[in-house]
Amino acid sequence: MEEKTEMKKDHVVMISGANRGIGAALSARLQADGWSVSAGVHDPDALQLAAPHLVCPFDATRPKSEQEWVEKTYAHYGRIDAVIANAGVMTQGSFLDVEDEALEHMFQINILSPVRLVRTAWPHLVSSGAGRVVIVSSLSGKRVKSARSSAYAMTKHAAVALSHGIKRVGWGHGVRSTVVCPGFVATDMARGITGRDENSMTQAGDIAVLVSSILNMPNTANIAELCISCQEEDLY
């Protein structure tokens, strides 16, 4: 008989962008699987999690926000076992079209904020002995599908590299990192760029199931990259 994966009861996960879409699905799934959730959101009053779960204000464009969130999480729970950098933004356009301000905004939210978040939480992830990091990137981090997605793809390729860098630095400390690269997901972001029927897109809840499994894997079974598509894809 196949042995079931033991869920990490009372372990603590921080999830950015937890107010909707993939982040909200991750929060719901991981709570159901026994994780204590610290949800980082723009508007804490708009998100209700069952006690004792924690909702914290978080702004990925404000450099001190990550430190404040980590400190509140550790003060509340006394531990941090996993970080999921899920918050992200997209400005459509090529590198010729997207202005510096918009490009810097994408890099700030999609890359620099996850770097600050993981860096600040690092001592707690190491102390866990089995710290987990999930960077939510995109299939745009594996290929440049069109000229109009090329500026966004620059930031998502960087997110893939960040996850691999975290894995390299953290391996000897028991810290494992996975980059999740979904294609079209039935969220507000996808609705804004495609007319594809929602039932033909990957569902946020399906991604949450996969991420939950990743977080509960032992140190001897790391998935470095998880590419999820709702259609045939040329990744390179």
Description:
By secondary structure, the chain is α/β, with parallel strands linked by helices. It is 39% helix and 15% strand. The protein has helices at 21-32, 65-77, 100-128, 150-170, 188-191, 204-215, and strands spanning 12-16, 36-41, 54-57, 82-85, 132-136, 176-182, 225-228. Strands 3-2-1-4-5-6-7 form a 7-stranded parallel beta sheet, with helices on both faces. Strand 1 (12-16), helix 1 and strand 2 (36-41) form a beta-alpha-beta unit. Helix 2 (65-77) packs parallel to helix 3 (100-128) and helix 3 packs parallel to helix 4 (150-170).
Question: What labels describe this entry?
Answer:
about 240 residues, alpha/beta, 7-stranded parallel sheet, globular
**What percent strand?**
5-15%
**What would you call the structural class?**
alpha/beta
Name the poorly predicted regions.
1-7
Q: Please tell me how large the radius of gyration is.
A: 17 Å
Give the structure's gist in a few sentences.
With 236 residues, the chain is α/β, with parallel strands linked by helices.
What are the SSEs and their pairings?
Blueprint: E1 12-16, H1 21-32, E2 36-41, E3 54-57, H2 65-77, E4 82-85, H3 100-128, E5 132-136, H4 150-170, E6 176-182, H5 188-191, H6 204-215, E7 225-228
